[in-house]
C-alpha cells in the first residue's frame, strides 16, 4: 500500500507543481489537498482518482477534519507576503501561526504512527533576523520542529522561478538576471519544478533515504530538523532522476 499525503498550500507556485508530482507518483496512493482554495480540476492532469480536496478555514481548524486521518506525509507550501497580508501582524498570523497550527492539527495522536513533515521555508531564514520575513520563516521552522513529527525536513530554496498569475515586473527582471548567474553558482536560483520534485522524493525516502551529503541537522536540542539548502535540493532532484 502506498503513502498517504496531505498538502497545505497547493494553489501557490510551488504547491501547484508538488500536487502534480504527488498525483503522478505511484508511491502515493492517496493525496489530500486542504486549503483556503483548492485546485481547479481542469489543471489536474493525472491521478484525479486518488485526490481528495477540501476547503478549510485556518481560523477554525477544529472544524477542518485534519485530525480525522493518519497522514504518512504532510507537505506545507503555505505562505504569503507582508504586502498581500496587509500588515506585519497579519503576515505573521498567516505565514507562521496558520502553518504551525495546521501542522499540529494534522499530527497523529498515535505514537506508533511515523509521520514526515516537509515545509518550504526560505534561504536566509533566521529566527533572530531583524528582517520580518526571514525572522518569521526561522521561527516557523523551529515551531514545526517542536511539534515532534518523526521526521521534519525543511527546504530553504533560493529565489524561486515560476510563472505567476500576477504581474511583478521587478521580480521578473531579477529572475532573468539570476537565471544567468545560476550558471555560475547553484546557490541563488531554484526552479519550482525542481523544488517540487525534491520534496516529493524526500517525502518518499525520508531523511535516512536521502544522500547523506545533501542534508544537515539543524534546530535546537528540543526542536531538531533536517535542513536542505538550495544546493541540496538540486542534488536530491538529480540523484533520483
Automatic annotation (TrEMBL):
Keyword Transport: no
Annotated localization: Mitochondrion outer membrane
Protein name: NAD-dependent epimerase/dehydratase domain-containing protein
Alphabetized Pfam families for the sequence: Epimerase (PF01370)
GO cellular component: mitochondrial outer membrane
Matches recorded under PANTHER family: OXIDOREDUCTASE HTATIP2
Highest taxon listed in the record's lineage: Eukaryota
Organism per entry: Wolfiporia cocos (strain MD-104) (Brown rot fungus)
Ranges that cross the membrane: none
Keyword annotations of the record: Membrane, Mitochondrion
Family label: Belongs to the FMP52 family.
